[in-house]
Amino acid sequence: MNILLIEDDIQICKVIQKYFSDQGTEVTAVTDGQSALRLAEKGIAEYSLVLLDIMLPGADGFTVCRTIRKNSDIPVVFITAKGREEDILRGYALGCDDYIVKPFLLSVLYAKCAALVKRTEQTDTVLACGAIRLDTKKLICCVNGQEVELTPKGFAILYYMMEHEGWVIARETLLNKVWGDDYFGIDRVVDNHVKRLRKALGSAGSQIHTVFGRGYKLTEK
Known about the structure:
This protein is an alpha/beta fold and 221 residues long. A hairpin with a 4-residue loop joins strand 7 and strand 8. The strands form three sheets. Strands 2-1-3-4-5 form a five-stranded parallel β-sheet, with helices on both faces. It folds into two domains: 2-121, Response regulator (Rossmann fold, 3-Layer(aba) Sandwich), CATH 3.40.50; 126-218, Arc Repressor Mutant, subunit A, CATH 1.10.10.10. The longest helix has 16 residues, at 106-121. The chain has helices at residues 10-22, 33-41, 61-71, 85-93, 106-121, 152-163, 171-179, 189-201, and strands at 2-6, 26-30, 49-52, 76-80, 98-101, 126-129, 132-135, 140-143, 146-148, 208-211, 215-218.
């Protein structure tokens, strides 16, 4: 288990790192929101779980969580002093897996993290459709056994399509799922990303079908 801790309180970082290290778990600490965002945009595939504070310098934890969810399904646990109901509900709405209010017991925090990682590892992380294979944990896409490079948005679009193989997916749905509910741009931006996604997939790009007036559909052929 390899944990990414995003927390601006150095003392809390040291305490968590020491306790988790004693349990055989490595914890990498990041202490500001901007550095966390840069990591989140890369997909943070090398980590098993993210521990995330909300009140951070540079960018708050809600923003970081939203960015993580656009690129990865890694387990995210908020650890924060913000215990109001609206904050907790917002955290879950953004896709966190647990929300822990400070102060907390280190033993309980570790147990929750271990349980989440174990549950995630038991889940099938490889999706397949026709010639396309998508490893959602390693964030790798292969076509006919050959790895292809996708943008984070392209990966997220393909991930959603593969989870809903055979469904007709509206542009508005992809905007909400990939760009987030707070995106106010035009839905035609989806067309441009799908065009680039098809090109990146090469021969398998034809598996993404345009359903005129409705959206897109992914099939095996």
